[in-house]
Design brief:
This protein is mainly α. About 80% of the residues lie in helices and about 0% in strands. It is globular, with a radius of gyration of 21 Å. The N and C termini lie far apart (about 45 Å).
Length: about 180
């Protein structure tokens, strides 16, 4: 119904009744973020994690909020925790790489961007990020190499998209032909 006021009241009532369900805290935290009550949201996420330490989504929500608030080191810690639980989450890995770059953890940023590129070889922001990280390490040669690769991919993006489309069509044809 998108009635945040009533939903917030319901979650607060449930929490007041000592609900053991971490989702009550997590969902109230989401509402707090939407209502720009960021400290309350952090408190709710903290409590949700105490109740369910394996809640990937709660760590992710808290990491995003911390990053938005400029609490970069703690956001980075939360992103690492998410990836420890599920290393396949490339959006989280990208967010972690961006924060690592911002915090001048250049080698960590490069490692994360390279993991992303193994799965998404045409993801331009990863090439730019690696170039920046190599700049931070004063490795001009590698920075230049990654910038050139980014320029080349950008220049050929239409041809790359067409090739990707053809590959998807070929895979669909093969899949349809199998018994």
């Amino acid at each position: 119904k998108n009635n945040l006021k009533e939903a917030y009241a319901d979650y607060s009532r449930s929490i007041a009744l000592k609900s053991p369900h971490f989702g009550d805290y997590m969902n109230r935290g989401i509402i707090n973020v939407q209502q720009r009550r960021f400290m309350e949201a952090l408190s709710d996420y903290d409590q949700a994690i105490k109740l369910e330490p394996k809640s990937l989504i709660t760590y992710m929500n808290r990491a995003i909020l911390r990053a938005d608030l400029g609490d970069d080191n703690n956001a980075l810690t939360d992103f690492k925790q998410v990836l420890k639980m599920d290393s396949s989450m490339m959006e989280v890995r990208y967010s972690k790489a961006v924060l690592a770059l911002k915090l001048r953890n250049y080698r960590d940023a490069i490692r994360d961007y390279q993991i992303i590129l193994k799965q998404h070889e045409y993801f331009l922001p990863a090439y730019w990020g690696i170039a920046q990280a190599y700049d931070g390490l004063n490795n001009v040669k590698e920075a230049y190499r990654y910038r050139q690769k980014a320029y080349e991919l950008d220049r050929n993006k239409d041809r790359i998209r067409e090739k990707q489309k053809e590959n998807l069509e070929a895979k669909a044809t093969i899949a349809n032909e199998q018994p």
